[in-house]
Structures are given as structure tokens and as C-alpha cells.
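Per your request, structure below.
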């Protein structure tokens, strides 16, 4: 009987002195525990849901996350896929995507984004609603009679220089080649206007509006799907002359000391 009482007392003391488990941060804050991420996730940063924009190019900024890396991001409008962009750094577990959509008419659109990880899994699409305004009509419309009395005229609309977002870092040089000096360097994500292309197609003459600089970058620094068909060929500046090494100064011979 005494042994039983002693055993019960020891059991109670050990239970009371045992360390209690420390609650997680989420539990301490009263939040549900987050499950381990097994599939990619995507969300749209800008524009915000319900935004109204003028008719023109719309930039969609979104993030994608996956523990196995992000392979590509897909942009859809009203259920139709507009573009799919491959991540140049698929090992990134958190990736920022910047995609451009050009609506052709006003109205309310459903814009969706989803991401695929390197394992081939797609995230659930996330959507926002964007309203595009119709182009304003400032000039009065001609009467039907006047319009029918003269033949139609077609005025071509000049296209401006294409603007690109760099997908990799690139030195910006004074000419199309490594023999030219480095003026500056553009980083991944910088925006530049393409104003010319070299005769071999390996270099682009660009304007960097961030610092108002004109220089040459490699074509491989821009997205491969960029249309360069309308970019004019630009003549390269003269190749810099090689710097001659400084002329050596002859050292006079040391006279042999006279020994009497």
C-alpha cells in the first residue's frame, strides 16, 4: 500500500513539472495554423480591383510563389489567354511578373492571372475587374452626305519606338561591340526605348529614360518575343583607336668605375 501511494505521488509531481509545449506564433495570435505550401499561389498587385483606366496599354503587376520555383505566369482576359511569360529565373520561390495588355475597345473586363511551378502544377486563377473608358470623340462627325461625296483617305499612324523591359543585366556601351567603352549598365527590370539595331542584329541602340542616356546594349537582354522588324538599322560609330603603350625611356649604361 505504501509503495502504491509513493508511485502515485511521484507520477503527479512529474506531470506537474513536465515542460508545456510552446504555442506557435499563429496560435498565440489566435490565428489558424498555415498549412505547408504544396501548390503555387498567385496574386495581382496592380491595378486594383474595380480600377477605371483610359483606353490604352494596361500593365498588370502580379506575384507568384511556390517552394519548388516559378516556371511561368499566364494572363487571361474574359477567359481567353492573352500571353504566357516564362520566368528567366525559375529557381525563384517568389517571382514578380509584369505583363502588358492592350485593350481595343472600352468596357468592363475580367483580368485573371495564374502561375505554374517547376513541377508543372498550376495555381488557382486570381481575377480583378477593370473598366476601360471609350476613346473620347472631340471632333464633330461629318454629315452622311458630305462623307459620301468624297473618297476615303487613309493616313498611316506612325509607330513610336518599341519600349521593352530588360530580362537580364547588360552593359550599355558607346557602340555595338565590346571594343567600345562602357557608359553605364542597365539592370533586369529597367525600361528602355529601342531606337536602332546594329547591322548584325546583335546590338540595340536604346534610350534609357531613367537617366536620359543613349547607348548600346546586347539584343539578348530583351524578351526574345520582341518585334524588331520596324526598328531602323543604325550605323555604328567609328571604332576607337587602340591605345598605344607608353614609349620606354632608355636607361643609360652605368659606367665601370675606374680602377687605378
Amino acid at each position: 500500500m505504501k509503495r502504491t501511494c509513493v508511485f502515485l505521488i511521484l507520477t503527479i509531481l512529474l506531470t506537474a513539472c513536465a515542460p508545456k509545449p510552446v504555442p506557435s506564433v499563429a496560435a498565440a495570435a489566435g490565428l489558424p495554423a498555415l498549412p505547408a505550401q504544396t501548390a503555387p499561389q498567385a496574386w495581382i498587385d496592380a491595378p486594383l480591383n474595380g480600377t477605371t483606366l483610359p483606353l490604352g496599354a494596361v500593365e498588370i503587376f502580379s506575384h507568384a510563389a511556390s517552394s519548388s520555383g516559378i516556371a511561368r505566369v499566364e494572363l487571361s482576359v474574359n477567359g481567353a489567354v492573352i500571353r504566357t511569360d516564362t520566368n528567366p529565373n525559375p529557381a525563384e520561390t517568389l517571382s514578380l511578373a509584369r505583363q502588358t495588355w492592350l485593350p481595343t475597345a472600352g468596357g468592363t473586363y475580367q483580368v485573371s492571372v495564374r502561375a505554374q511551378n517547376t513541377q508543372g502544377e498550376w495555381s488557382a486563377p486570381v481575377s480583378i475587374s477593370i473598366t476601360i473608358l471609350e476613346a473620347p470623340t472631340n471632333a464633330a462627325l461629318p454629315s452622311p452626305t458630305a462623307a459620301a461625296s468624297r473618297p476615303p483617305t487613309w493616313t498611316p499612324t506612325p509607330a513610336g519606338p518599341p519600349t521593352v523591359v530588360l530580362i537580364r543585366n547588360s552593359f550599355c556601351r558607346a557602340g555595338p561591340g565590346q571594343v567600345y567603352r562602357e557608359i553605364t549598365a542597365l539592370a533586369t527590370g529597367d525600361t528602355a526605348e529601342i531606337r536602332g539595331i546594329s547591322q548584325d542584329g546583335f546590338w540595340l541602340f536604346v534610350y534609357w529614360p531613367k537617366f536620359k542616356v543613349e547607348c548600346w546594349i546586347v539584343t539578348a537582354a530583351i524578351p526574345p518575343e520582341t518585334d524588331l522588324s520596324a526598328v531602323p538599322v543604325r550605323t555604328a560609330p567609328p571604332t576607337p583607336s587602340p591605345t598605344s603603350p607608353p614609349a620606354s625611356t632608355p636607361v643609360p649604361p652605368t659606367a665601370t668605375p675606374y680602377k687605378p
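Confidence is low (pLDDT under 50) at residues 21-29, 31-36, 153-157, 254-260.

Regards,
D.
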